[in-house]
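Fill in residues.
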């Protein structure tokens, strides 16, 4: 995860990383609820790990929103201003 940024390359990279993270979380969650698995201490540990990953994903999304807004603001600042009526 990058620091606050208004660079579209950073934003694109972070979105790709978040997509990977969400894919891993989904696979872990599906494995945890497998019908063949007994509910036991191992399952509780796995649920804890999935919860930890979800916290990371949530924090990444918050930063991505801020970075997306920064990119949008940068484009607005750099866009040529037109004086005519459209």
């Amino acid at each position: 995860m990058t620091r606050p940024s208004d660079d579209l390359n950073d934003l694109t990279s972070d979105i790709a990383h978040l997509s990977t993270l969400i894919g891993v979380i989904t696979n872990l969650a599906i494995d945890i609820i497998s019908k063949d698995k007994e509910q036991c201490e191992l399952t509780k540990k796995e649920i804890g790990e999935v919860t930890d990953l979800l916290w990371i994903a949530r924090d990444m999304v918050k930063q991505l929103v801020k970075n997306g807004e920064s990119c949008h603001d940068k484009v607005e600042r750099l866009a040529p201003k037109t004086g005519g009526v459209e």
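The chain has a mean pLDDT of 86.
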